[in-house]
Amino acid sequence: MVDSLAYTPQITLEFKIGEKDFFVAGECASRVKKTLQQLGLKQNVIKRIAIIIYEAAMNVAIHATSGMVTVHIEPDAITIRTEDVGAGIEDIDLAMKEGYSTATYEIREMGFGAGMGLSNIKQCSDDLKIESKVGVGTTLNAKVYFQEQPRPADR
Ligand SMILES: Nc1ncnc2c1ncn2[C@@H]1O[C@H](COP(=O)(O)OP(=O)(O)OP(=O)(O)O)[C@@H](O)[C@H]1O
Ligand SMILES: [Mg+2]
């Protein structure tokens, strides 16, 4: 197992996500997971990365109109970016709270909408930035270092 990919060229993976395209989120996560396993990255780091990609991509599929997931693998870290066009988030601090969700009854019936996605992403990320404009869309940037980082007590 390695915690640096110094001899690996940088890799960028991109996925397009359509409205209510629930399948693609799992697909993105498992494709990146496979790539990182092939590169020999530690399983616990891969798991955190897969959770971020899945939850962020699901949020685009469920809460936005359309978007992209871009995953950039560097020698020492991975960045996960989602960019979407959609309703946006009015209050990001509130949206980050465990249990807060605006998911519809229909979405909840499908087993989503527990309001846990963003807080899970936060817990799994070493660095997280979310920007959003109501009625325009949302951008999320998460970074995970391959080498264990000092963690704040709440993570
Ligand atoms: N990309 C997005 N566009 C618009 N709103 C979003 C987006 N991502 C999150 N939100 C808002 O933030 C809320 C909280 O998101 P979070 O991922 O934590 O929970 P959820 O998606 O509702 O449920 P879960 O992720 O547990 O299935 C959402 O209900 C939604 O209101
Ligand atoms: Mg979610």
Question: How would you sum up this structure, described in words?
Answer:
The protein is α+β, with helices and mostly antiparallel strands. 36% of the residues lie in helices and 28% in strands. It has 5 helices and 5 strands. Strands 1-2-3-5-4 form a 5-stranded antiparallel β-sheet, covered by helices on one side. The longest helix has 21 residues. The site of adenosine-5'-triphosphate has 24 residues, from helix 2, strand 3 and helix 5.
Q: Report the principal-axis shape.
A: globular
Q: What's the CATH first level?
A: Alpha Beta
Total DSSP helices = 5
Number of strands: 5
**What value does the Rg take, in angstroms?**
15 Å
**What is the percent of helical residues?**
25-40%
The low-pLDDT segments are none
| Major sheet summary line | 5 strands, antiparallel
The N- and C-terminal alpha carbons lie at a distance of 24 Å
Bound molecules: adenosine-5'-triphosphate, magnesium ion
Relevant CATH superfamily: Histidine kinase-like ATPase, C-terminal domain
CATH architectural arrangement: 2-Layer Sandwich
| Main sheet strand line-up | 1-2-3-5-4
Number of domains: 1
Residue share in β-strands: 25-35%
pLDDT averaged over residues: 94
CATH topology: Heat Shock Protein 90
